[in-house]
Specification:
Elements lengths: L17 E3 L19 H14 L3 E4 L12 H14 L4 E4 L19 H5 L10 E5 L3 E2 L8 H4 L7 H8 L2 E2 L3 H13 L3 E6 L2 H12 L8 E5 L10 H10 L5 E5 L5 H11 L2 E4 L16 H15 L6 H7 L9 H8 L6 H10 L1
Parallel strand pairs: 1-2, 1-10, 2-3, 3-4, 4-7, 7-8, 8-9, 9-10
Antiparallel strand pairs: 5-6
Helix pairs in contact: 1-2, 9-10
């Protein structure tokens, strides 16, 4: 990305898109009963509350009636159908892990099988986005946490702690390419999760080879533990690799979430918050609901002079539903340099 003169002036930036992650599949309802929605009615109301507070993208997970994270696609279909009615202008982004929470005590925290995750392309109604990881990686969510972040919660219990500490994100090349193709065929935008420059470079090659032909919409996931650490050096290095027209959201965890989001607001990028990422106020004196986190970011953005996008504006900024016909068009629209002439000739013949 090029930060030219005036790039930090709000009038030269897109309006802020706020992603809310209010369902927190890693937590049990007892960890934050005041804010963790369990019944289907309450899960729908949580989306409405987030939208009314200023969030325009909803990161969707769903719970069973017993409060555990659901791994059933039928539950996702039920929630999506109700969300389309309750928050019609909100971008519905299904979490590609479905739910990584262990099914029973002592189980590993793990992502579901390749075939099961492919079935996200068959959800009805169709979501706007599905988050897509590329390149298998460690996801030790505790590496950047302070023990106070999870003390007294289910994640502090030895069996749960061990389960999440050893979590792996499976995202090999065959699966990732097939997954992107299936989502695109259904008109679902791939919301790429970039853990570092390596994962971005893999997606760039996918674009250059014609696997993905759409707007580049992505998260920089800075939580450590196999992913980038949330510091300004990693962020600056990552941003230098980004094409000019990427729609980039910054994501971190616990007390890193707010300062990383403040950098995103100042730099014209987008933000994500919610109890899936963070439970606490910055002084750790109280837990902070997803709605309170959204309201905080809205206040800060207004102090910067940057307007918050409406639902319809967020869909335009993220170019929901847009795909391109050729590799050359995809590269140009996203701000990449074109393929080399020999590669272009080969690609044009293939298309």
């Amino acid at each position: 990305m090029n930060f030219l003169d005036g790039a930090l002036h709000p009038e030269n930036q897109d309006k802020l898109v706020i992603t809310a992650a209010p369902y927190g599949p890693e937590w049990l309802p007892s960890d934050f009963p005041e804010d963790i929605a369990v019944s289907m009615d309450d899960q729908v109301q949580k989306a409405v509350d987030c939208y009314n507070a200023g969030a325009t993208v909803l990161h969707v997970h769903v719970r069973e009636a017993d409060g555990k994270g659901s791994k059933r696609l039928s539950k996702f279909n039920e929630l999506l159908a109700r969300l389309r009615i309750a928050v019609p202008d909100m971008v519905l982004q299904v979490g590609g892990s479905i739910s990584f929470a262990p099914e029973t005590e002592g189980d590993k925290a793990k992502w579901l099988s390749d075939d099961t995750r492919h079935m996200l392309a068959e959800l009805t109604p169709t979501p706007d986005q599905v988050t897509v990881t590329v390149n298998t990686a460690q996801m030790n969510i505790f590496e950047q946490m302070d023990p106070r972040d999870y003390a007294g919660t289910s994640l502090g219990e030895p069996s749960m702690h061990a389960a999440f500490r050893e979590m792996i994100v499976p995202a090999g090349p065959t699966w990732a390419e097939e997954h992107v193709r299936r989502l695109s065929a259904k008109g679902i935008q791939s919301a790429f999760q970039f853990y570092n420059i390596n994962s971005f470079e893999t997606v760039e090659r996918m674009i250059r080879r014609g696997v993905y032909k759409g707007p580049l919409v992505a998260n920089w996931v800075a939580i450590g533990g196999g992913m980038d650490a949330p510091n300004v050096y990693n962020l600056a290095n990552f941003l230098r690799a980004m094409p000019d027209r990427v729609a980039l959201t910054l994501e971190s965890s616990m007390l890193n979430t707010l300062p990383v989001n403040m950098m995103a607001i100042a730099m014209g990028l987008h933000v994500r918050c919610g109890i899936e990422d963070n439970l606490w106020s910055q002084d750790r004196k109280s837990k902070m609901s997803t709605v309170k986190q959204i309201e905080q970011l809205v206040r800060i953005s207004r102090e910067f002079g940057r307007d918050v996008a409406s639902g319809k504006e967020a869909k335009q900024i993220l170019q929901i539903g847009r795909f391109y016909d050729t590799v050359d068009e995809t590269l140009a629209k996203n701000g990449f340099s074109p393929n080399r002439p020999a590669v272009r000739s080969f690609q044009q013949a293939a298309e």
